[in-house]
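fyi for ur records
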Amino acid sequence: MAFNKIQPEQIQLHTFFSDSGDLNISQTDTGVQINVSRNLTGNFAFTGDLLSNGKSVFGLPSTGDNNFTVSSGNILIQGKNVDIGDAVGQGNNVVLKANNANVSGENNVLINGAGVNNFGVDSLTNTVIGGKNTTVDVTGSVVMTDTTSSSVTPDSQGFYASFETGHFFLDGQTYFENHVSFESSGIFSGSLELIGDSILSGSTIVNQAYLEKYAGGPQRISGLHIYETGFQLPKWDGNTSQAGTIEAPATGALAISGSTLLVYVGASAWRGVAISGSTP
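which gave:
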C-alpha cells in the first residue's frame, strides 16, 4: 500500500485557551508554543479570599463614606468618613484607623484618630497619634493626645502632648537639653536638688536657713560681725517679756526701754543698766 506523507502545515490545529492566565500560548504553522506566564495585566476583581503563601492579603476599606486615591500614594487602613486629598502637591498620606478625618497636604500620618482631625493643604510631614479635634497646617510636628483633649493647633517643628490624667515618665531619668518653662505654677513632689548656681526671680524660696534666720529660729554666730549701718534692739515690754522659750531661754538677750538697757537672765527675769552720757 502506498502512503502519502502529510506535512505539518496541512494539519488544522485546535485552538488552545488559558483562562487563568498561567499559560502563554502561541500557535504557529508548525506547532504550538506554551510558556508558563507569571505576568498579569489589567484590572482584576476578586470574590472571596486572596491568599499569598497561605496568608490572607488584607484589603483597603471600601470607598463608600471614605475618599482616597491609592495612585497618589495615599493609604487608608480602616476608617470611616475619611477624606484624603489627592490634588496637585498632595499625596503620600497614610491614615491607620480614623473617624471623621480630612487629610490633605503631603507625607502626613494619622494613627488611631478618635475625632475630627484636619490636615490643611499646606501641611507637610506631620504625625498625629490618637488625635481628637486637631488642626494641622504646619511642617514637621508631632501631636499625641487622648480621646478627651480639647482643640490642638500646633506650630511647625514642635511636639505637643495633651492627656487628661497627666503625663507619666516611668523608670530612668528624664533629660532636658535646654530650658524648661511652666506656663502656670509648678508643684514638685519629693526632694528638689539643684546642681550648680540657681537664679530665682520673683518670690524668695523659703528654706531651712531662711526660716532659722527670719522666723525666730536659733542662730549660731561665730567670728567677728561688723555692722556698718548699726542694729536695732527690740523694745522691752515688761518683766513678762519672754526671750527664747521656757525650755530654751535666750539668756543674754538685749532689749531697751527708754534710757535703760536690759539683759535677759532667764526665768522671766530682766536686769537693767541705765544708759548715761550726753547726746552726741
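The domain at 70-162 is CATH 2.150.10 (Alkaline Protease, subunit P, domain 1). thats all i got for now
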